[in-house]
Amino acid sequence: MIRHALRGSSLAVVACALALSACATTDTDAPPAADGSSSGGASTDRAMARGLDASTNLDPYPSTYQPLPRDNVAIVGGTVLTGTDQRIENGVVLMSDGKVEAVGPASTPVPAGYRVVDARGRFVTPGVIDVHSHLGVYPSPGVSGMSDGNEATSPNTAQVWAEHSIWPQDPGFNTARAGGVTTLQILPGSANLFGGRSVTVRNIPSITMQGMKFPGAPYGVKMACGENPSRVYGGRNQSPATGMGNVAGYRAAFIAAQDYRDKWDKWRETGEGSPPTRNLQNETLAGVLDGSILVQNHCYRADEMMVMLDIANEFGYRVTAFHHAIEAYKIAPQLAAAGVCADMWTGWWGFKMEALDAVEENAALVDAAEGGCAVIHSDDAQLTQRLNQEVAAALAAGRRAGLNISEEHAISWITSNAARSIGIGDETGALTPGLRGDVVIWSANPFSVYARADQVFIDGALTFDRFDPRYQPVSDFELGQPGFGIAAANIVPGAR
Amino acid sequence: MRRFALISLTALALSAMPALAQVTAITGGRVLTGTSVIENGTVVISGGRIVSVGTGAAPAGARVIDARGKVVTPGFVAVDSGLGLTEISSVEGSEDQSNGANTISASFDVSYGLDPWSIAIPVARLGGITRAIVVPNHPGGSGGHQHQDDSDFAGAGSGGFQTPGLFAGTASVIHLAAGTDILVQPRVAMVAPFGEAGAGVAGGARGAEFTLFKETLAEVRLYARNKAAYDRAALRDLSISRADLEALIPVADGSMPLIVTVHRAADIQQVLRLGREEGVKLILDGAEEGWLVAADIAAADVPVLLNPISNLPGDLETRAARMENAAALNAAGVVIAIKGNEGSVHRAREARYNAGNAVSHGLPFEAAIAALTVNPARIFGMAGQFGELRAGAAADVVVWSGDPLEPLSSVTAAFINGQEQSLTSRQILLRDRYRNGGRQAGGMPVAYGN
Hints:
The complex is a heterodimer of chains A (about 500) and B (about 450).
Chain A: H1 2-18, H2 20-24, H3 36-39, E1 73-81, E2 87-96, E3 99-104, E4 115-118, E5 123-126, E6 128-133, H4 171-178, E7 181-186, E8 194-202, E9 220-224, H5 227-234, H6 243-270, H7 280-289, E10 294-298, H8 302-315, E11 319-323, H9 332-338, E12 341-344, H10 362-368, E13 373-376, H11 387-400, H12 407-410, H13 416-421, E14 439-442, E15 453-458, E16 461-465
Parallel strand pairs in A: 1-4, 1-5, 6-7, 9-10, 10-11, 11-12, 12-13
Antiparallel strand pairs in A: 1-2, 2-3, 5-14, 7-8, 8-9, 14-15, 15-16
Helix pairs in contact in A: 6-7, 6-8, 9-10, 10-11
Chain B: H1 2-12, E1 23-32, E2 37-46, E3 49-54, E4 63-66, E5 71-74, E6 76-81, H2 120-125, E7 129-134, E8 169-175, E9 183-193, H3 195-202, H4 206-225, H5 227-231, H6 242-252, E10 258-262, H7 265-278, E11 282-286, H8 294-299, E12 304-306, H9 325-331, E13 336-338, H10 351-360, H11 365-372, H12 374-379, E14 397-400, E15 411-416, E16 419-420, H13 426-434
Parallel strand pairs in B: 1-4, 1-5, 6-7, 9-10, 10-11, 11-12, 12-13
Antiparallel strand pairs in B: 1-2, 2-3, 5-14, 7-8, 8-9, 14-15, 15-16
Helix pairs in contact in B: 3-4, 4-6, 10-11
Protein name (chain A): Amidohydrolase
Pfam families (chain A): Amidohydro_1
InterPro entries (chain A): Amidohydro-rel, Metal-dep_hydrolase_composite, Metal_Hydrolase, Metallo-dep_Hydrolase
């Protein structure tokens, strides 16, 4: 009952974010009650000072994202890969009011007044989703003063939020968009057992982080297995110094979080005694326990992933995705059975011991398991620009291994599966009527190294056009820098 | 008749005795020689070398490899690579690319650390790479960048400068054929960082490094003229070790090229000036801002090793980085070679994708192929010896299922020095062990499945 009340509160975060304009303009002097069940308790009778009761302001850094100006658009004549295993030759994609309205064959009628984009000879896919990005928190330039991705001061920093480190002027957002990336999950780094909260953003130029925040997207918590936490803290002669120290650290944190949650529940229920002191670290982990915050777990090795699944079972939460899941192929059936996505590279390996057993077929083998959720991610400002090529390499490897994988299926590894992996599958990731109008028009088959993203739409708005300098945004940082505005052989001002 | 029988016998014994007098003809493919394209071409190899490249029929009795519908190229040459020198990047002791001792800097010769049994080599081969220019990394951080999860999370700023040495050491040429000896030629070039990494060596400022460099070469020349006096301890004190002095003589006299890792356009200009003033033969490495001074680089006839996908300002030295850098330099007449990723060890195989991305950003396809094959050989003074499908060159030949720059294409056959290479790797063994869901028939663990 009490857990249900908490879950209700978490759902209210989503509701608030979805009804964005209303929440953003709410008078914060009179915060809305979270929902019936929690406001029925003692908390409303015993007002606490602002900011001390999380339930009174569930979205303290609300999204101010507004889609860019847009028309209703009809993309006609292209080869459409829907992200849901469908391939439509000479297809029609309609977007109205920023949403996908219809997807169909050439006979699909185009309503009057729609701006028609001729995609003959080109390919149309959902916008690319990079589920593992450090853009903004490890921005370019990565110089002293700009390295904000790891709060490597304690093994548990679940209290920090990646969004508070994001520098929106990172030029990497623009280059990612030129590679078709429309949505990114920005994560803290992996120095800690709990690195902090992730945030999902729309990839549009913005002065503020809030202007990019994906309305309604759930938070994640970055957890890290393996070598990184034990090396960082073991190197300081503190725990964790070993894999077993890592596991003790996760367990201790969830024990503390359960205790914290129970204290709040009791206080809300009875109103007796003093209210617990708000603790941001435990608040994040309590969100994991109630299912409102998704576990995004950096974990390379198969044996460690299976231990992490047992820990989740021990404390009653779910793991949503394993990131950098180098050895996912060794436990593909188990991951599929647990409903956990494996977020992977194709070509990265050998940079440390836990990356030794990488195979290019990882995604294909994870995908081949019944119910498997394979995702290709970047973790890198360069690779995020070419996730389509990373999928192509994975697809080719899978075919060499004898697996029959179609292009219209493989595109899901950076679209619909990626959306599922960060909890926004009902918002984007596929060309399905009603979902957000996040669309890429590629110059050629996106599994070709020569394909370029020609146009990129986010919520139905044109945000990048390879042929139109008016749609090639330049960050503040880039203005007036060396090379800025200079044309040379093959080089045009503005684009990187 | 008798000769035919003999050749057949040799063909049967191929696996046991590769590349004896065996003649192999690769026929019917689209042949990219490195400098030209031959449709429906025939490449004949024998005795470890290429015998002919043309459109004729296969010689009688030759083992014929049908490459119809396929593409035939020279094996690709990884440049700025750590193949055979680095096994697991983060495992100290398995990394023989950088040396921190200040008495062994220019004289550090990576060839003694080569491991022909490295598990990274077969993986690179599956990416079509058959040779590599392997280089020392400067301990000050000039080498391939580290994945940030590998750092101690200080961010991607400038590294520590543990050594006062200006030089990282000398590079070697290796081939990637399976076997016990991969060294082709040691000491083909000297390596030194300039820009931020080099400035750190001299005390922190760029200008100081140039002064130190000139002073060092002056000492080398003094030493070279007065070795006998040096040995009698009758020469003034010199600031570097005898081994380093000796190693730098060919740099000072212009016979050994100096690979200069440099990024910023301004630094490139100063390095070109230094080359002129000191008579040093230069190869630029990195050169992300090279396009801004492409005409200067071309006029100096200095080649460039570059990664065409470096388009972000990782630091303040690369603010003008652009995807079109390769195309612009090539258009200006600069000879370029295209690198793989992260120091071209584990991700050396991605060089072909990097080349493809250069093509999609304006580099002509033929120039991209040349940048993976014939240009590296030219840059390191070994034109005609490898990196090209022409008579007399080493028989490093790769057959591809399609366009070699495409991720959807793969290697279907590879020859190095005329020896056909196995198309497997530790990764392929792992894949095959787990391709059936990690279980094998009979309920036994996969570990029993070899």
